[in-house]
Amino acid sequence: MRCFLAIDLPEEARQQVSELQAHLRAGRKVPEENLHLTLAFLDDQPDYILEDLNAGLSELQFDPFDLILSGLDMFGGKRPRVLFLRALATPALSDLHRRVKQALREVGIEMPRERFRPHVTLARFRRDLIDDDTARIGGFLAARGDAVLPPFEVTQISLFGSTLHPEGAVHEVLATYPARG
C-alpha cells in the first residue's frame, strides 16, 4: 500500500489554508481534506512491514508541541512544480522527524538522506506553465508570500494510506499515534 506518516492539520488550520488557496489563480490546489505536513513518504509497503511499523510507532514518545506555518515558497526553481507553506523547523518538530526516521529504520525502511524541509503543500503545477500562470503565481507570492497562520498544537501523528486517481490522491487515516511525553 502507498502510504506516508504526517501531521494532520486541525480543522481551523485547514480552513485558514483553504482561504489562502482561494486567492491562487493557477495550478491544481490540494483539497482541504488532504492538507497535511509529511514527516515521511513511505511509498508502497507490504502489509507485514506496516504491521511492524504500527507496533513500533505505538511506542513512539514525543511531547505535544506548537506548529507554526509561516511564509510561502516553491519547489522547482525556475520551473516551479509545488507551492507550499513553510513550517518552522522547531527543535520539537525536528526531534519528532528524527524519531520517526528511527522507527522506520527499525522495520527496514530507509529514508533518503535529504534535508527535512517541513511544509504543507498548497498547489502543484504542470512543467509547461504558460506565462499567464507564471505571472499569477508571482502576483500571489508578492501579495501573500509572508502569510502566517496562528500556531496549533500537534498532539498526534497519523499513518495515511494514499490511493491515486485521475482527479487526485485520496488519503485515508490508517492509524494515529498520540503524543505522550
Secondary-structure blueprint:
Elements lengths: L1 E7 L2 H11 L6 E2 L6 E9 L2 H11 L7 E3 L1 E7 L6 E6 L3 H16 L12 E6 L6 H14 L7 E3 L1 E10 L2 E11 L3
Family: Belongs to the 2H phosphoesterase superfamily. ThpR family.
InterPro entries: Cyclic_Pdiesterase, RNA_CPDase
Organism: Shimia gijangensis
Name of the CATH first level? Alpha Beta
* CATH architecture annotation name: Alpha-Beta Complex
Span of the ends, CA to CA: 30 Å
Number of helices: 4
Number of domains: 1
Most strands sheet: 4 strands, antiparallel
Characterize the overall form. globular
**CATH T-level topology:** Cyclic Phosphodiesterase, Chain: A
How many DSSP-defined strands? 10
Report mean pLDDT, rounded to a whole number: 93
Strand percentage:
35-45%
Helix content: 25-40%
List segments where confidence is low: pLDDT < 50 over at least 5 consecutive residues.
none
Strands side by side in the biggest sheet: 3-1-9-10
Topology pattern, helix = H, strand = E = EHEEHEEEHEHEEE
Which class best fits the helix and strand makeup?
Answer: alpha+beta
Radius of gyration: 17 Å
CATH superfamily: Cyclic phosphodiesterase
